[in-house]
Amino acid sequence: LPPAHALKIEFVGKAPKFKVFSGVKADDFFKITFGAIKELDASGNAVTGRSISSLASQKLTEWTENDVTLGNATAKEVRMRFDLSTSKHLQKPCGGGKPCGTSCAHFDKAKHQIDVVVYLVENNTAVPYGNSTITVKSNSVKFNVESENWPFCDAANSLSVTADIETVEKVASNDAVVNTTDRTNTTGSSSGEPEGTEVTLPSGTSAVEFDLPTIALVDDVETNVTVTVVVRNLHQVRFRVSKLQEPVLRSHRGVRGR
After folding, report:
1. Predicted model pTM
2. Nearest Cα to Cα of residue 32 among 150, 117, 158, 102
3. Cα(first)–Cα(last) distance of the chain, in Å?
């Protein structure tokens, strides 16, 4: 987008559900909604008593907005924090049973939380990410999902995070398609963009581009994850990131309009 058409983010309440406006037309925006977070067993099945059906429906325990340095540029950061011990979805023993409230034995750490962090980036920047560097273009939105001390029922289990993206404008061309491309880091693990999935979603006469790396940082160590993209129609997709493990993890996602 030209500099005159700055992106704008509008949050739907204080929840991980927000609209991103292109700045070109008032009604040209796309919406991102964070949905289910599920603990999966080694076979990929949801674990009873360890799923949140919709993160957007959970009560926030903290909301902060700051100007921060992202790479070599300044960005606006909105951080939404959820105390997992307050979620009724998780206040049961492994395998189900009677609710145990915030005093459940599995809440044995000082912090059990998930953060959804959204950055509004106006200028080009490069952000270190594991052994790679992520290029964030001007007029982009970058978002992270960060989990600390999820109460896993088994050390072999993992997390799955789902988000829905929907554009509002109808697609102008009948032959428009949602393009999904797998990116391989051909320059080596110590340089270049991390491996990932790139998705282009039509929006009116323009498009929205998503960059979904297929690695996450677990205690600052690169870990392979699975990104699943489900195309619902020409203006709505759902992506799910799974195989996130261990006490502290960070997963990067980026998006920009064009």
Report:
1. 0.81
2. 117
3. 6
